[in-house]
Each structure stands twice: as C-alpha cells, then as structure tokens.
Design brief:
The chain has 379 residues and is mostly helical.
Length: 379
C-alpha cells in the first residue's frame, strides 16, 4: 500500500503526445529514420516515448534516450532537459532511484541555465519524490523548500496543486496522517476546480489510504473504489492501475476479505509487470507476504517475501544509496564551482578596473607635472 504522487509533476512539465489508436503509433514508427538527425526525428522519438509512458516503461526509455541524443547533437538545451526529466521519471517508476536522481539533476542544471523556473520547480518536486520514496526525509524536505520558494514567487494553480501533493507525501512518510490529509484535501479542491481527472484519481485513492491508516477501512474502500471507477473513464492512464489495485487489495486485507485482496494484488502485479514498474511489483509482493502471514500460511508468506527481496536487492542496494548521496553532492559542488568561477570573474574585473583607474591617475599626474614644468620654463 503506497501513495503515488509522481505522475502529476510529470504531466505538469510535459504535454504528452499520447495517441488513442495503434494506427497513430504505427505512423510515428514509420516516420523514424535513424540516419537522420533533425527536429522531426527528435519530436517523433519524443512522441513515441510519451505514447509508451503509461503502458510500457522500458519502451518509453528507449525512445527518450534516442530523443535526448538527437537533442544533444542539435544543441537544443530545452529538449535535452525535457528528455533527461522523462528518463528520470521512467527510472523512478522502476524503482531505480539512483539513476532517476542522476537524470533529474541533469535536467535541473539545464533548467537553471535557461532560467526556466517553472520547469525547475517541477524537477525539484520530482527530486522530493525520489528522496521520499528512498526514505531520506531530510533531503526531501530540503528540496520541498526550494520548490515552495519557486512556486510561491509565481502564480500557477497547477503547480500549487502539485506542491500540496508533495507536502502531503512528506507528511505521509513521517506518519503524520492528519497533516497529510489536510494537504490532500486542499489539493483535491484545486484539482476539482481544474477538472483534472487523473489527479482526482490519485487523490481519491490517497485519501482512502489515509482513512485506512486512521482505522476507518469502510471509508477507505469507498474512496479507493471511487478512484477506480473514475480511472476506468479515462484514457491512456494504464500506469495508474497497479497503484489503485494495490491500494484496494491492502484495504481488503484489513477487513479480512483475503479472496478479494488476492484478486486485486494479482491484477496490480500484471499491470506493474507490463509497465516495467519494479517498485510497484515489489510493493505487491510485500503486501501478499503480509497477507499470508495473517492467514498463518507461512509457506506462501515466505515465497512472496523472497520475491520482494529479490527485486529490492536488484534495484536498491547499499551502493545505490551511496551513489544517490554522491549525485546530490556533485550537483551542489557544481553549483559552488559555478559561483566561484563567477566570483573570480567579478574579482578580476574589479582588479582590471582598479588598474585602469591607477594608470589613468598616474597618466593624469604626469601630464599635470609636465604642464607645470613647461609653464614655469615659459615664465
């Protein structure tokens, strides 16, 4: 059972080219030409990546990588940043937090160069999600504050909506459920005003989870089932299904309805495997293990727990944690180096100006001395 906050910040940054039929995808694929390096090929790879984003995570990664490489060759900074961001999002959904963080920081550097505060705020929000999911609440809070300062300096309702989600995520990870619920309700009111169906799906399910945490399973199930009903009316949102079914399954476990819980977890695993989301698949296995433990079926409890740890060990090792720390340190060091270079340049400019002033002053003094000498000679 877990919250899912990532999708909103992704959608805020990108207007995805999601097709409604396979014919559109076929048309895009036919338009690809690996030998050509132009904006058409860049946009085509980007569009195909967006098409696969919510159905096949691994496929999406391939095309975002291609789009990023073309953007580099064409020296298109914004396109490079956008594709780094998308690559980071895909890896976040796969549970590869170190790779995700590396690409988010790449996008941050480029957005800073472009002075694009709106996209920079979204990248910061996504970094908050990475740190929250990996359990580093201190870093998550630090980047939340960076995000808040950027968003509050603007006037973007969508970003404010996402900011509430990010704060709710941090409170949830700290087990402060009342505070998390407060921010989710604020976000839900904004999402309803914006008529943002996908965000409403997320919020209904997350509010349901909070009620579950607050020992109100009946209300929890109602919210999550309403989330699923709304989800089925939307298109191109397959990425949401694993989370919603996972959350419904976890609530059925609390009420002792193990048959319905198993059905929900199985559906969640199928969607997670299709989309390549290891983090969600891992969550399902852990929940199943806990469920069989409650049923005193220790054989299946152990079997699912082994599946959970097999995936966890493959995607999030001790080295991964160290790598994430190094990545953040590299980013901060890079910023410091830029500041030092700028400071050195300012100092050099000040020295040059001072030297020029001294030279001019000496020249003026010499000229006045010479004029005084000639004047006395003339006298």
């Amino acid at each position: 059972m877990k919250f899912f906050f990532f999708t909103l910040s992704y959608l805020l940054l990108h207007t995805a080219v999601l097709s409604e039929s396979k014919d559109v995808l076929d048309s895009l694929l036919n338009g690809l030409n690996e030998k050509n390096v132009d904006t058409i090929q860049l946009q085509t790879n980007r569009a195909i990546g967006d098409y696969y984003m919510y159905s096949n995570n691994n496929k999406a990664l391939e095309y975002f990588e291609s789009a990023k490489n073309i953007a580099k060759k064409l020296n298109r900074t914004l396109d490079m940043a956008s594709n780094y961001y998308s690559i980071a999002y895909c890896n976040l959904m796969k549970g590869k937090y170190d790779i995700s963080l590396e690409n988010y920081f790449q996008s941050v550097r480029l957005y800073e160069q472009l002075n694009d505060n709106r996209r920079l705020a979204n990248a910061y929000m996504s970094i908050v999600s990475v740190y929250s999911e990996s359990g580093n609440i201190m870093k998550a809070t630090e980047y939340y504050e960076k995000t808040r300062l950027l968003i509050e300096s603007g006037n973007d309702t969508n970003q404010l909506c996402a900011l509430f989600s990010t704060k709710g995520q941090i409170f949830y990870k700290q087990l402060m459920y009342d505070s998390a619920l407060y921010y989710l309700q604020k976000q839900y009111r904004l999402a309803s005003e914006l008529k943002d169906g996908s965000t409403e799906v997320t919020l209904l399910c997350n509010i349901g989870l909070l009620y579950k945490k607050m020992n109100q399973p009946k209300e929890a199930l109602t919210y999550c089932e309403n989330s699923l009903k709304l989800l089925k009316t939307l298109k191109n949102v397959d990425d949401y299904y694993p989370e919603v079914y996972n959350n419904i399954g976890s609530i059925h476990v609390v009420t002792g309805n193990y048959t319905e819980a198993k059905k929900a977890f199985d559906i969640s695993i199928l969607y997670a495997a299709t989309s390549g989301s290891k983090a969600l698949e891992m969550e399902d296995y852990l929940n199943l293990s806990e469920m069989y433990g409650k049923m005193n079926n220790y054989k299946l409890e152990s079997a699912y727990l082994k599946k959970y740890y097999t995936i966890k060990d493959s995607v999030f090792t001790h080295d991964t944690r160290n790598q994430m720390t190094e990545l953040e340190a590299d980013y901060q060091l890079g910023k410091k180096n830029i500041e030092l270079v700028k400071k050195d340049a300012d100092i050099k400019e000040q020295k040059n100006q001072r030297n020029i002033f001294i030279i001019l002053a000496l020249a003026t003094l010499l000229l006045l001395t010479a004029l005084s000498f000639f004047y006395k000679r003339m006298q």
